[in-house]
Amino acid sequence: MTLIAPSLLAADFLKLQSECEMINSSAADWLHLDVMDGAFVPNISFGPMVIEFVHKIVNKPCDVHLMIEQPGRYAQEFKNAGADHLTIHIEACPMLHQDISQIKSLGMKAGVAVNPHTPVSFLSDILHEIDIVNLMSVNPGFGGQKFIPYTLEKIKQLKQMIRERNLNVLIEIDGGVTIENAKEIIDAGADVLIAGSTVFKADDPISVIEKLKAI
User: Fold this and answer.
1) Which residues form a coiled coil (predicted)?
2) Whether residue 131 lies in the annotated active site
3) Residue 209 is part of a domain; what is its CATH number?
């Protein structure tokens, strides 16, 4: 079954508590939290303080995605804030194995994110160490972008790598996911759909989540 992870980045932060309570009452599986530093990506979002607040309200796993430089420096801080999964970018981690080991030692699921221009083959030597691969299907840094079509081929390539090695690694798709393209993404091999604007900008977010779950 495909997992649905609404992205809080698209929520109305003036109504943050009610947005979190909506997620609680929905069929969503995870809550996705995008942390941006204005250096690795050209935007700044929120940090551990907001995640700590959200974690107190939300009854779903907190899927934290660090779009920041030197993410390993902050693993303990995000664990303390309530992260259940911590995803870091391969492009930001020259000591990737060390960072993954640290995340797992803290009791979190370890994810690795891959930007649109980065081949999935770069994960070959580390794939057996991680729990989640976040395939960016837009350029990271801003919500509301359109899905990059060649991501479908990357999903297929990554799925083949995982199956050939008999690994238990989830493929997470991040960016431009809609009701219209979700089936094609799932058919390519995705396990987790991150949906920001599609959910939070909808007139009936709970219904949208149910539709995504039903695909």
Assistant:
1) none
2) no
3) 3.20.20.70
